[in-house]
Amino acid sequence: MTALANDTFLRALLRQPTDYTPLWLMRQAGRYLPEYNATRARAGSFLGLAQNPDFATEVTLQPLDRFPLDAAILFSDILTVPDAMGLELRFEAGEGPRFERPLRTEADILALRVPDLNQLRYVFDAVAQIRRALVQDGTQRVPLIGFSGSPWTLACYMVEGRGSDDWRATKTLLYSRPDLMHRILAVNADAVAAYLNAQIDAGAQAAMVFDSWGGTLADGAFQEFSLAYSRRVIAQLKREHEGRKVPVILFTKGGGLWLDAMSHSGADALGVDWTVNLGQARAQVGHRVALQGNLDPSILFAPPQQVAEQARAVLDSFGPIAPGEAVGHVFNLGHGISQFTPAEHVAALVEAVHRHSRGLHR
């Protein structure tokens, strides 16, 4: 087991004492960085970037070389799993991801199977290569996060065939043929669990489930069609590897209403978006799970002094952590960073979080 130079992120997820609040950013390897755009141009396309372990390693490390972040996250896409199921993923310029073979018929759905993980070997090779690249002088710089989309979020794209404003086809199927939706979700849950376990075997030291579209569901439907299947994933995950605990983060955008239920999902931490009051969330569930979040990504368009001020406000909302108190906070955005974000504003954010949080951990 390689020693970690900085394990603050892992300790915060496990609600263990830390000297400060660790920080990483959703989509931290992305289009706001000129070096990322240069690498993507060399790769020729997004899929060319994501499916090449050399390129994926390069862009994963780029934000760490620029900012003193506390975790790396695998560069990949949430739609790799349904692509391996035969839905044939492609990306259209200006349109985002599309599937050539979405789930349109009952026969399509009944034929769905957990994919052969060898089809996703490029992901696991990237995880192993990133882990090796994170080691300097025999010590690993920061932990590596693996991830997947949630069963429900994957189902949204698999049924629609692309992104949507209202997920009309997906919700029509849910309400008219719930049996078929449960079939998709059951296959997805087992596929996601196997996929994340393979990432852990390859070297991922934390796992994150992105339930990006769980918040579009009605109360009741969320618990039945999203949370139940995220629980099914989490129940199957390896929770220890290489002599360390492997914490799991569950993030449902728009899921603030269901934090209490989510805190019983088996996850070690819950990601929250910017609509959630962190202090109230801590009072509600902070004795059961750590919290991750939750700066509005749009704040990063403001001047650096306002970015720092708003970062301090998020930290103050969570509040101080007394010695021996079993609570944990990982600072993050409430969703992914925008491609239009100035990199120098990210630098101001990281500095403000690290500086201000030290006073809250004394």
UniProtKB/TrEMBL annotation:
InterPro entries recorded: UROD/MetE-like_sf (IPR038071), Uroporphyrinogen_deCO2ase_HemE (IPR006361), Uroporphyrinogen_deCOase (IPR000257)
Gene3D superfamilies: 3.20.20.210
Ranges where the Uroporphyrinogen decarboxylase (URO-D) domain occurs: 22-31, 145-161
The protein's enzyme class: lyase
Pathway the protein takes part in: Porphyrin-containing compound metabolism; protoporphyrin-IX biosynthesis; coproporphyrinogen-III from 5-aminolevulinate: step 4/4
Catalytic activity: uroporphyrinogen III + 4 H(+) = coproporphyrinogen III + 4 CO2
Subunit structure: Homodimer.
Role, per record: Catalyzes the decarboxylation of four acetate groups of uroporphyrinogen-III to yield coproporphyrinogen-III.
HAMAP family, A to Z: URO_D (MF_00218)
Protein name as catalogued: Uroporphyrinogen decarboxylase
Native source species: Thiomonas delicata
